[in-house]
Amino acid sequence: MPHKKLGQVTRGLLTWFVENARDLPWRRTRDPYAIWVSEIMLQQTQVKTVIPYWERWMRELPSIRALAKANSNKLHKLWEGLGYYTRVRNMQKASQMIMKQHGGAFPREFEDILALPGIGRYTAGAICSIAFHQPYPVLDGNVMRLLTRVFGIAGNPRESRTNAVLWSLAEDLVRSAQLAACRPNANSTAVRTDAEFAASNLNQSLMELGALVCTARKPKCELCPLARFCVALKEDRIEDLPAASPRPQVTKRRVAAFILEHEDRFLVRQRGGDTVNAHLWEFPNVEVSCEPHDISKTAKRELEMTAALEPFCTIKHSITHFRISMDVYRGVLKSGTALASAAGTRWVSKAAMKRLPFASAHRKIVLKLDNRTGSLSRA
């Protein structure tokens, strides 16, 4: 795109952002720690979901030092429900690295930020531009979609060649925004004249416009400040861009889970550190065939116990391309000593269970259990 047109695009973005930006809690601070937390939480997660998580996190762990020292249960409980738990463990590793290598102060240099666990080019650029006003570009899913449409880029944005083109465009826009901020439109007083804020506002305008206007489905082109520049709109290719990645084949799985009760306590176990949902808690469970099965024999074989089991509920959930159906059964035991002898397994009360961080599907069991009354016969 010619330099003049590039400047018009960036000016339009800057003006639109100042007039339309949402009042989000992490936009009221320039604390790099707070901004970092928000950016990690926002990965794969909607803003409306993140807000209460972010506010609670900042109350409970208001500093890098607090995060570095937090115990595993507290850390995972604060993240419970956000999913992709590797993110929160990487955050703690990064905070501990910051304490050791940077004296507890969040690093300001892009390369130092990029070297932290769990931080890639996008997150490093977001922190540098928003917290430190440095001219680094960002490229998340919203920005990819916006740029492919405005500039008419047909390739798959996740593939290396197209991705490199998009990063280059994002970088050009940040540089252009600094120039545009120094020369505001005579007809608009909304654009900040201080170029110091240009990178922050430009990057956030791209993310915001992609999230609110240039949406994946039914984009609001009539509200877009870039409509007159948009190649996809002019060529009627909005639905074709960005090019979709091939969808992985869906795999169905079936799981049997067991609510086992003994003296008003329930058996739960913590997942190991090298597994999916590592460090989270769950009810005893086992993957079973999708064909009809004898649940009593399954429980005896897998858990080495015999109990009168009653159907409790069925939980449907998804993990990446897996579609999982979890049949939940409940039973009361006379003795629970043997079952609790395995590493990471314990009997807990309902009150204690609520304080533990559970994997998403198992958290639903906890909620259903809390809402139900009635006793079972003892085995």
Q: What can you tell me about this protein's structure?
A:
By secondary structure, this protein is of the alpha+beta class. The protein folds into two domains: 3-240, Hypothetical protein, domain 2 (Endonuclease III, domain 1); 251-371, Nucleoside Triphosphate Pyrophosphohydrolase (Alpha-Beta Complex), CATH 3.90.79.10. Helices cover 45% and strands 13% of the residues. The protein contains 15 helices and seven strands. Strands 1, 2, 3, 4, 5, 6 and 7 form a seven-stranded mixed beta sheet that branches. α1 (3-20) packs across α11 and α2 packs across α3 (47-60). The protein is elongated and about 80 Å long. Mean pLDDT is 89; it is low at 186-193 and 374-379.
- For this structure, what is the CATH class of the largest domain? Mainly Alpha
CATH topology tier name of the largest domain: Endonuclease III, domain 1
Strand count, sense and barrel status of the largest sheet are: 7 strands, mixed
Q: Based on the structure given, which CATH architecture of the largest domain is correct?
A: Orthogonal Bundle
Mean pLDDT: 89
Summed up, the domain count is 2
Question: What Rg is obtained from the alpha carbons, in whole angstroms?
Answer: 25 Å
**What is the H/E string?**
HHHHHHHHHHHHEEEEHEEEHH
Class by SSE composition: alpha+beta
Percentage of residues assigned to helices: 40-55%
Q: What does the overall shape look like?
A: elongated
What distance separates the N and C termini?
A: 75 Å
